[in-house]
């Protein structure tokens, strides 16, 4: 595969195992069953003692994967989608930034259980070093307020996971809403 991976355990050997043990059998299975599938297949994986183990398959990009994957794509995304639809993807240019991207999801207090909506969100418009994706927000009386459990995704780039996370957390320090919560352990399992 030869992909540039900021994930320490995703060595060339591990990525080759992913391709041989997961990706190719998945594609072979679709073809064997006569399924003309065109689109995303997101394969959630774990590292099981150096071997890939499938946790889940999704036929879509989800949160926060989309917010960390799509910003790294430097190629024309519409052209790539057209290539998928017309089965000419192999003819398209596909370039990805070598930088690492991290995304930290801001959630409403109580998420994923019961949470309240309508909490005013401030400071997001002052963020400069990150991309702020609105997920569960709405505009009410001229103010941006919470309107879901997953409220915003904060995506940042860096030359390492640590640098990208530092930027995301600095950006998060500018944002506030009542009972805002987020994970502070992103990437710790990669060390």
In words, what does this structure look like?
The mean pLDDT is 91. The protein is α+β, with helices and mostly antiparallel strands and 191 residues long. The protein is built from 4 helices and 7 strands; from the N terminus they run αββααβββββα. The strands form 3 sheets. The protein has a 3-stranded antiparallel sheet. Strands 1-2 form a two-stranded antiparallel ribbon. The chain has a two-stranded antiparallel ribbon with strand order 5-6.
Features:
D-amino Acid Aminotransferase, Chain A, domain 1, 4 helices, alpha+beta, Glycinamide Ribonucleotide Synthetase, Chain A, domain 4, 191 residues, two-stranded antiparallel ribbon, single chain, 25% helix, 2 domains
Major sheet? 3 strands, antiparallel
What is the SS-derived class? alpha+beta
Q: Look at the structure and name the CATH superfamily of the largest domain.
A: Phosphoribosylglycinamide synthetase, C-terminal domain
What is the number of helical segments per DSSP (H or I, 4+ residues)? Answer: 4
Mean pLDDT: 91
Order of helices and strands: HEEHHEEEEEH
Distance between the termini: 23 Å
Q: Per DSSP, what share of the residues sits in E-state strands of 2 or more residues?
A: 15-25%
CATH class (first level) name of the largest domain: Alpha Beta
CATH topology of the largest domain: Glycinamide Ribonucleotide Synthetase, Chain A, domain 4
**Low-pLDDT runs:** none
Strand order of the largest sheet: 3-7-4
Q: Could you say which overall geometry the principal axes of the C-alpha atoms support?
A: globular
């Amino acid at each position: 595969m030869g992909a540039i991976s900021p994930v320490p355990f995703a060595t060339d050997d591990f990525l080759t195992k992913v391709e041989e043990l997961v990706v190719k059998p998945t594609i072979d299975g679709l073809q064997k069953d006569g399924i003309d599938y065109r689109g995303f297949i997101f394969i959630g994986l774990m590292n099981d003692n150096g071997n890939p183990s499938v946790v889940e398959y999704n036929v879509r990009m989800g949160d926060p994967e989309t917010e960390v994957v799509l910003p790294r794509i430097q190629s024309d995304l519409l052209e790539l989608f057209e290539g998928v639809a017309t089965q000419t993807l192999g003819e398209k240019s596909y370039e990805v930034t070598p930088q690492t991207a991290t995304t930290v999801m801001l959630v409403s207090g109580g998420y994923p259980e019961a949470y309240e909506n309508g909490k005013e969100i401030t400071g997001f418009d002052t963020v400069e070093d990150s991309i702020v994706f609105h997920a569960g927000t709405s505009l009410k009386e001229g103010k941006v307020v919470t309107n879901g459990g997953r409220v915003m995704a904060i995506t940042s780039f860096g030359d390492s996971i640590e640098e990208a996370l530092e930027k995301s957390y600095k950006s998060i320090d500018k944002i506030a809403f009542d009972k805002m919560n987020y994970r502070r352990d992103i990437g710790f399992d990669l060390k």
